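Suppose you are handed a protein chain with no further information: no name, no annotation, nothing but its sequence. What can you learn? This example shows the usual starting point.
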Amino acid sequence: MNVKSDIEIANSVKPKHILEIAKTAGIPSEYIEQYGNYKAKIDLKFLKDNKNPDGKLILVSAITPTPAGEGKTTTTIGLADAMRRIGKNTVVALREPSLGPVFGIKGGAAGGGYAQVIPMEDINLHFTGDFHAIGAANNLLAAMLDNHIYQGNALNIDVKSITFRRALDMNDRQLRKIVDGMGKRTDGVMREDGFDITVASEIMAVFCLARDLSDLKARLAKIIVAYNMDGQPITAGDLKAQGAMAALLKDALKPNLVQTLEGTPAIVHGGPFANIAHGCNSVIATKTALKLADYCITEAGFGADLGAEKFLDIKCRVAGLRPAAVVIVATVRALKMHGGVKKTDLNMENTQALINGLPNLLRHLHNIKDVYKLPAVVAVNRFPTDTDGEIELVIKECKKLGVNVVLSDVWAMGGKGGIALAEEVVRLAEKPNGFTYSYDLNSSIEDKIKSIAINIYGGDGAHFTADAKKQIEKLTALGFGNLPVCIAKTQYSFSDDKDKLGAPTAFKITVRNVKVSAGAGFIVALTGDIMTMPGLPKVPAAENIDVDENGKIVGLF
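A reasonable first move is to predict its three-dimensional structure. Written in structure tokens, the prediction is:
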């Protein structure tokens, strides 16, 4: 059987003009800034002028990811299409893909099969230039910092205390640790430096959490770039950089409007990673979608221990959001991998492996239902090799937690394959819930990290290195102790050890570095061997991507 690739499916559908999508979404044309015929920016005035009540917010998350795949973004898009099929006014809000995974190993983030947002080539590559603007703003601040030191260092900056790094939206391990400023005196001040991938930068976090342009500028000014010789923080505001940075970001801050294959309005904006950043699209995008529709379907990166935790504990706190329901995406194949089966053996029925892997799904469900007090449904992407017995086992175990399981086939059927899921989401969203957070903001930085490690990861707490303890002590003394925490951790395990699959117990995460993202408004804790600049795999996806003589891109998933 000849199975079409995602890009072939996307190219087989004639998209509607973006003004037609805007009309469907209820956005007057005066608020639309076209980027060609199929992409547009929504003027920030629209959100300010719109007085509609907010719709219901539906979060899509997933089990701990495996190489077998789960299909979270695909499910998010397919669910939005299905909601419209059953007559619900719905808009989907997604993150923008980073070029790092696109050319690396993970792939893009425009969905898959018949549940995609289009134009998928544009979305997965340069799109409307938002990430370039974020990288430029980041590197402008880095340049102004080094120039200030070169020009006499009036702020008495301790060069060894610089915390702000340059950014590039590409996987490039060569740039993790560098020495720059070498050469003649006029070539700068020599020092150790490094790059983060743009989606892990604080500028990306600030961009995604800002309420409007004024809030963006205020947050940019608070970014700590270094400390002076007295140990006091030096900010972007001290360098007078926030105005120029905001000028670079003013157009990027406007959310992007595109569409699904079925013509559902989609807002795709911002894109921090969830394993090394907070993993959610922009607050502006989500709030715009909530004003446009009765239901906003959105996602958060990787498993619920990462993306959903940060969505609920950070984004919802900052933006005053309250989810109505949560979808947890799983596959039988991925659960069997958590149960110890190799990827090559997943096509065979293996009930025991499924029993061994199910605790991963059940822990995620427990967290959503019992920690955050939110109603949940499990969406199982069914594969042809899944047996009835395996599916029944998943249904039976989830029922014990009072959670329904719905089979989803949106990859192959689009919105039609998500009707049952849409109906269950509507049923759950109509119920009141007791949404709460997983930790108290007023507790100490250490206690907040331990709370997540115990309540969400299922571990015994956290071990802090000597450096991490000193950093926490300093940040607390500077008045940052009451901020939420953003834990950078491997996406492949509840623990900080990627090889501990399933639902491990009796472990502690090791916190080796703690820093403040004062502009974003949270504390970042780096655990295990997590890197803020990924590297390319042995065979990068870039090797298979090409463009023909007519400008048609091939090999992009």
